[in-house]
Amino acid sequence: MALAHSPDQNHLLAVLPNTDFERLSAHLELVPMLLGDMLYEPGGQLQHAYFPTSAIVSLQYITESGASAEIAGVGNEGMVGVSLFMGGDTTTSSAVVQTAGHAYRLPRGILQLEFDRLGLMKSLLLRYTQALMTQMFQTGACNRHHSVEQQLCRWLLATLDRIPSGELVTTQELIANMLGVRREGVTEAAGRLQDAGFIRYRRGHIAVLDRAGLEARACECYAVVRKETSRLLSDLRQRRAEPTAIR
Amino acid sequence: MALAHSPDQNHLLAVLPNTDFERLSAHLELVPMLLGDMLYEPGGQLQHAYFPTSAIVSLQYITESGASAEIAGVGNEGMVGVSLFMGGDTTTSSAVVQTAGHAYRLPRGILQLEFDRLGLMKSLLLRYTQALMTQMFQTGACNRHHSVEQQLCRWLLATLDRIPSGELVTTQELIANMLGVRREGVTEAAGRLQDAGFIRYRRGHIAVLDRAGLEARACECYAVVRKETSRLLSDLRQRRAEPTAIR
DNA sequence: GCGCCTATGTTCGCTGGCGTACAGACAGGC
DNA sequence: GCCTGTCTGTACGCCAGCGAACATAGGCGC
User: Fold this and answer.
1) Which residues of A in 161-190 have their CB below 7 Å from strand C's atoms?
2) Is B132 within 8 Å of B167 (Cβ atoms)?
3) Can you give the pTM of this predicted structure?
4) Using one digit for the tens of pLDDT, what is the confidence trace for B24-67?
5) Residue A53, CB half-sphere, CA atoms under 13 Å: how many?
6) H-helix or E-strand containing B39?
């Protein structure tokens, strides 16, 4: 990608007022995120908060028997490491890079100072946390009631929202890990979606051809999370990025 | 129950320093919570935060097709209405009284003022919120991977932790709604647990005879949530209740 | 250009939980 | 003390998803 990196590529950082942003910017460090990188594991002390720009991070739980399940994802709309300001410092979950890319990271102490400052950053982070809770809530219900195909559609759409192109780079095996289902189940569901003309895939690449088609087959969960996230964060959005917005 | 009601019966209220507590106490109102009462529904504006003493509230999601699933529960260890201070004001979920009892409620504005005061209340509420997130996270994974019987054990244990006696008053039908499974599935699992001598039940009453037995059959999820909740809140616990603690 | 590794396709039997249906049995109200 | 409504027990067929096993094929490294 020829585009220059910028913290503005992360929605949370993009809406900070200039004064707040300038205070932070010296501490922001651009880091590459490789597929499979583990940002933290259960009980581990987080040292940084991560604000993804092009990377996507999966918050997942691994059961004692080794089965995994993604309960929430974080892309350029959010941040990884809410427990740093919630007071717990660690969590029982893991954070794994699901789509390679970049993120800006901020040392733990700086984030905590900024949170206690009571500026926009605090309300922004709290609202984002509520959006994250909505996502977790919805995933829980989705895991109980919806089919693999519905969940695959939900997952594809959510991932698509976090990347610039219409093509995701991932294998069916990895998707199966995220959803916590068998790889074969993903193969079958993906095959049906391809037959329907909604997606096209080849070894590790999935191109979305018909977004509306996927939305029609997805369960409500995708729309609920998207709508709620937008409600929680939209009135804060674009303050800095579009200072002269007309409407 | 002959015991007098007291805000101290709620763990969060019990640990507030006297000065903080006294400021709030005039605004605390004891309210009865009847089985099935809905404290809020998706999108509705919350007017109060609820601190249960003997009641238990279920945070659940109802799918478009009408299926329900409890994603987290709130008893005397916590509060209902975190979205009031998270900034969203409402949520996409419902809160329903699962076990009748009492709670103290606090008007929305008072809670928000107190939260912004930066006292212990703020860190307490944030830590509790993280505990709630842990619960949601774990329920999501549990819904994906564990059997009805394991989940029933988890649910019984979690409920037991929130009531004084060893007997819960609920029907299998209601439990099925909480877990998001069929009533028959609960009947079968409960029958096995009774055969094993862990519980005994009759029309709407379940007595737990062997807690350790249930723990052995439950999935790890119960222990994970319990341990993490205790980690997040224990060092704050008992500040007021045991002002002269020795160690 | 060849070969190997890894991703995907397909099958088979199995089982947990679902939807439906109905029978018994307990408990509270009158 | 009876009756009725609710709660619980049981049975049936069905299907989504699981676990295991193996076949095929695409793409990268050399």
Assistant:
1) 171-173, 183-184, 187-188, 190
2) no
3) 0.93
4) 999 999 999 999 999 999 999 999 999 999 999 999 999 999 99
5) 20
6) strand B38-40
